[in-house]
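Reference record
================
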Amino acid sequence: MRLLDRYVFMEALAPFAFGMAAFNGILFASDPLRKAIVVFVENHVPVQEAVLLLLYRVPIIMAMTFPMAMLLGTLLGVGRLSSDNEAAAMFAGGASVHRLLVPVWVLGLLISAVAFGLTSDLSHKPWLPRTRCSSASASAQRRSPSRPSSCGTPKRAPWSN
């Protein structure tokens, strides 16, 4: 990785990190947190379980804020390069627009991979169904698939819509 690539990468990464912190704070402290606190207080939920349930919301909120933070990071990073005439100096030095944006594209691909991992793996694990079905009822379901079974239906969070 060239020095110019690292420089542009870091110029986009710093506003991205700020955007993640800001957007996560805003989304986490807004309506879902208020609803969850009301449910916890009304049902006398212990503090440890309440904190654990709120932490289960973090991957879902992070997956929602990745695109917004990446857009903010790209706009602020490239905008700063342009406003300080650093982009003009890079173009005068022989760098093309496409070559200048390669680090931003790489950062976008990395963020997309992390967001995919969060949405496909982490955010659904707390609500996976616990299979309490016996092997006899599971084999009966395989023989007669037209009969509906409650075995293996996923549980939903009490505050999700």
In short: Residues 22-126 form one domain. The chain has a mean pLDDT of 78. The helical segments are 3-28, 31-42, 47-83, 86-92, 97-122, 135-143.
